[in-house]
Every structure is written in structure tokens, then in C-alpha cells.
Design a protein that fits this description.
With 150 residues, the chain is an all-alpha fold. It contains eight helices and no strands.
Length: 150
């Protein structure tokens, strides 16, 4: 059964990804590339949602890892869209960290969560995932500091 937090994290990540891809000017990406990337990222977001709903965490990790590569690439070198790229990336990282934590891969989730928090320090879910990863890795003191950030 999907928790409310899991659904909210994935839903907000999906919405941000779709909106941010639409904000990239076609002249910066090339019309065809922009549309192809949007379609691929949209399809991946739907697949990720299905994987989260079925609690197929290995699949979520695979999809999110691919999305971070494919959906970020068009922003490279487009300085006017650093904030959009960072916002989208933090959302994708949230979902990846969630899946890694669910799989008990806490050491893998720590750098993902740290990157998420570094990109969006006001995002409580980044700090929550970091706290859970640190706690799972047996680092209670560090986990407490992360929990206090949210």
C-alpha cells in the first residue's frame, strides 16, 4: 500500500518535471529534441509512478537513474534555467532516495539525499530521506541533525 508521503513526493516530482521541461525555450534545445525529451521523460514518470504504486523499488531506482541522465542533459549549458534544472533534479533525487531507503540501501541513499538537500535546502522530503538513510546506516547523531533541518 502506498503511503501518502510516497504519493506526494512522486506526484510533485512528476509535476515539476513536466512543467520545467515545458519552460526550456525551444531555441535552446532544438524543437525536436525538446519534444522527444518531454515525451521520454513523461513516459518514464508514468512508469515510475506505476513502480512506486506496486512498490517495485528496484524498478523505481532503475527508472529514476535513467531519468536523471536523460531529463537533465538538455539543460546543460542553458544558464538561464539553472533553477529549473535544480528543482527538477531535486524532485527526481527525492524519489530515488525514497526507493533506495525502501530497499535498505542506506549507504547509496546518503549521497543522493545530500545532493537533493544541497539543491533544495527548503525541501523537507530531502532532509527526511537523508535522515532515514543515515539512521538506517547506524548514524543516529547525523540522522538527528538531518531530521532537525526539515
Amino acid at each position: 500500500m502506498q503511503s501518502g508521503r510516497t504519493g506526494w513526493v512522486l506526484g510533485s516530482s512528476f509535476s515539476l518535471a513536466c512543467l520545467s521541461l515545458m519552460m526550456v525555450p525551444s531555441r535552446a534545445l532544438g524543437q525536436g529534441l525538446s519534444q522527444n525529451v518531454m515525451k521520454a521523460c513523461d513516459a518514464a514518470s508514468r512508469q515510475s509512478l506505476i513502480a512506486v504504486q506496486s512498490e517495485d523499488w528496484d524498478r523505481v531506482v532503475s527508472i529514476q537513474t535513467d531519468k536523471l541522465k536523460v531529463c537533465q542533459e538538455p539543460y546543460a549549458g542553458v544558464k538561464d534555467h539553472d533553477d529549473v534544472r535544480d528543482g527538477m533534479e531535486s524532485g527526481e533525487l527525492q524519489v530515488l532516495a525514497l526507493a533506495l531507503n525502501k530497499l535498505g540501501k542506506f549507504e547509496d541513499a546518503i549521497p543522493v539525499s545530500r545532493r537533493c538537500a544541497a539543491l533544495d535546502a527548503k525541501n523537507a522530503f530531502c532532509w527526511l530521506e537523508l535522515g532515514q538513510a543515515l539512521e538506517g546506516a547506524g548514524r543516529a547523531s547525523d540522522a538527528r541533525q538531518a531530521y532537525e533541518q526539515r
